[in-house]
């Protein structure tokens, strides 16, 4: 399975009443593929405000995304939760929609042991035939999916990749010992280039909503051996990588999209829109 180098974790467009703006889904997907050069899209992930979407909204959004992408990029659907039974039930429904892979987050809040994490992912993987990408984001889940557990999970045939927001030490340990062809993606925009340097496949990004083309160029420079140009572009983009997370995501990236004329609305509570001052800061990143 080739998901490419730059995968965008897509926002969910809302209207003025914070209902999903179904008419905006196709233009947003076209923009991300054609203008920002996304190789794959994650639908209903953290950036897509999955915690506040209903299952029915998720199913419709995923179905439309598969249809509108039309094979131009891979569609990875977020179906994970902190309830193994629900994750299995929902993943089986989503599998039927024709997605290329499922993104399964480490169970949050209940803080399982490493054996519990292994059994959770194993049970989900065995319940479907579609490819699975693990998602480790300790800052949100309260638990780290350790390198050793990821390596162990990589031996399961349809667990083909991981999105890991841990440091490069953990990424390196996974790369050293995971199953052949197991793909490792960084989930931290500012670590995209360092992650490539230790052998990661690419980045699952929020910033690529607005600087995807530049990120593709940075990666291309690196892969061609133009490391100085890659490093220079990384340093130039770094304020955006970090600035869009100054306040809780995805409010800043939705504001950045609006500055580019791409309307994706506000965010659902408990998130709130950026303030006027925060909006001015985000605008300054692109001057």
Automatic annotation (TrEMBL):
EC nos: 4.3.3.7
Pathway annotation: Amino-acid biosynthesis; L-lysine biosynthesis via DAP pathway; (S)-tetrahydrodipicolinate from L-aspartate: step 3/4
Record-annotated site: Part of a proton relay during catalysis: 46, 109
Alphabetically ordered keywords of this record: Amino-acid biosynthesis, Cytoplasm, Diaminopimelate biosynthesis, Lyase, Lysine biosynthesis, Schiff base
Domain of life: Bacteria
Family: Belongs to the DapA family.
HAMAP family: DapA
NCBIfam families: dapA (TIGR00674)
Subunit structure, as described in the record: Homotetramer; dimer of dimers.
Protein name per its UniProtKB record: 4-hydroxy-tetrahydrodipicolinate synthase
Organism expressing this protein natively: Paenibacillus germinis
Lineage, uppermost ranks: Bacteria, Bacillati, Bacillota, Bacilli, Bacillales
